[in-house]
Specification:
There is one protein chain. This protein has one domain: Rossmann fold, CATH 3.40.50. 51% of the residues lie in helices and 13% in strands. The protein contains twelve helices and eight strands. It has an eight-stranded mixed β-sheet with strand order 3-2-1-4-5-6-7-8, sandwiched between helices. α7 crosses α11. The longest helix has 33 residues. The protein starts with 5 loop residues before the first strand and ends in an 18-residue tail after the last helix. 41% of the residues are buried. The structure holds NADP nicotinamide-adenine-dinucleotide phosphate. NADP nicotinamide-adenine-dinucleotide phosphate binds next to α1 and β6. The site of NADP nicotinamide-adenine-dinucleotide phosphate has 30 residues, from α1 and β6.
């Protein structure tokens, strides 16, 4: 096995993404040791028991000591406070990255705390499931998925090393401007999640009329929505609060299209509906051809709901 890319990695936040990174790094020998911190004792104990951390610490400040890579894997709204706490304890020359689903807000919250000589390289793996917590991770989560880095003017050697880490975990890496990232994700992930939450909310209201029929006769379309809408409430609250402008922009466009389809249904315009669905079907084919709709081999989990 080749030498590890990082001697000591600190994972701050030990949920789905951090635990998957821990498993993947261990499987590929990418880190010599992995330290971890999460808010609760229960999560820290689970991380040790599952085995993706070698040591856990009660504070983020202790966990980052001596680390040459620090991964912020907490909800987006918690990134700034964590960055402020760890800043005085970071090793000179260390790389700090994050996995947050929104990039501009994380950069605004984290960058001001980073001491000179520490490389801050924001990132976002486009991989996830509707499960959360330290027991939900698995080593193959990132395989053949994208990881987007928004390095700005960060040191090229530090960026190359982080890129190699993600590639070592199976991901394809692309660099992007943070504002562009937030717009793209508003289209591909954030707004679809909001629509799923809304559809399940509508069904919940209807449930009072139809009693349990919605669960009993739940068909594929609604079932898919419920899976997406089961995603972690804290994480998604933070995504919408921090990617506000792009989400509202896409939601506005979505509403216009919806009105158009509503009108076509009212007017009995079958040709319009057929043309529309033919175009959307082609997009689905494109996603499959790009290999972005693969099921995880272990546990039969789907990877669909990422952020
Ligand atoms: P998760 O499974 O819900 O876990 C969150 C973790 O963060 C938990 O270990 C929690 O600790 C810890 N935490 C929360 N607030 C904290 C704080 N103030 N200080 C220290 N630890 C704290 O989360 P996740 O799904 O891995 O998401 C983590 C990040 O990845 C988020 O920023 C999210 O936007 C991003 N992301 C998620 C997905 C996805 O599909 N899930 C995909 C790509 C990126 P306790 O358990 O002790 O409370």
């Amino acid at each position: 096995m080749t030498a590890p890319l990082y001697e000591r990695v600190a994972l701050i936040g030990l949920g789905l993404i951090a635990s998957s990174m821990g498993h993947a790094m261990k499987a590929a020998g990418l880190a010599r040791s992995i330290a971890g911190h999460a808010k609760t004792e229960e999560t820290r104990a689970a991380a040790l028991e599952v085995g993706f951390c070698d040591a856990v610490f009660a504070t983020a400040a202790e966990a980052v000591k001596g680390a040459d890579l620090v991964v912020l894997a907490v909800p987006v709204g918690a990134m700034g406070a964590v960055a402020a706490e760890i800043a005085p304890h970071l090793k000179p020359g260390a790389t700090v990255t994050d996995v947050g689903s929104v990039k501009q807000a994380v950069i605004e919250a984290v960058a001001p705390h980073m001491p000179p000589g520490v490389h801050f390289i924001p990132g976002h793996p486009l991989a996830g499931t509707e499960h959360s917590g330290p027991r939900s991770g698995f080593a193959t989560l990132f395989e053949n998925r994208w990881c987007l880095l928004t390095p700005g003017a960060a040191d090229p050697a530090a960026v190359a090393r982080l890129r190699a880490l993600w590639q070592g975990m199976g991901a394809n890496v692309e660099e992007m401007d943070p504002a562009h990232h937030d717009l793209v994700l508003a289209v591909t992930s954030h707004t679809p999640h909001l629509i799923a939450y809304t559809m399940v909310g509508v069904a919940d209201h209807l449930r009072r009329v139809t009693e349990s029929e919605i669960i009993k006769y739940s068909a594929a379309g609604f079932r898919d929505f419920t899976r997406i809408a089961a995603s972690d409430p804290t994480m998604w609250r933070d995504v919408f609060l921090t990617n506000k402008e792009a989400t509202l922009d896409i939601l506005g466009r979505f509403t216009e299209e919806l009105f158009m389809l509503q009108r076509a249904i009212r007017m009995g315009d079958g040709e319009m509906l057929h043309d529309y669905f033919t175009r959307t079907r082609a997009i689905r084919r494109g996603i499959i051809e790009a290999g972005q709709d693969t099921a995880a081999p272990d546990f039969g989990r789907t990877k669909a709901p990422d952020a």
